[in-house]
Design goal:
With about 100 residues, the protein is α+β, with helices and mostly antiparallel strands. It contains six helices and three strands, in the order H-E-E-H-H-H-H-H-E. Strands 1-2-3 form a three-stranded mixed beta sheet. Helix 4 (about 40-50) packs antiparallel against helix 5.
Amino acid sequence: MISRENVLFTIGFQGNAAIVDGELKRKYGSLSAVQLAEKGFFKQALISCLYSGEEDEILKIRELYNKNTRKKIQSTEDFKKTLGVTKLPEGIVSVIIV
């Protein structure tokens, strides 16, 4: 499994390599899930919760999301679907920083 910071800012894949936005990783990679959500990085905040197993924090992230959008998300499953995050990537053996 690749590091939390790399998985948060993965922007695509090339074979079994993750392509990571290096600038975003440097600026925001050390932030907590809640801090990421407060900065508007809701997808990364959700990924952080899934990576760390902090399922209870997803509720906090969803509350912040709902405060900033017109369409309110009611369930964790709908939240995951809305952000396009259902599971973490598997089989990644290397990282390409761009």
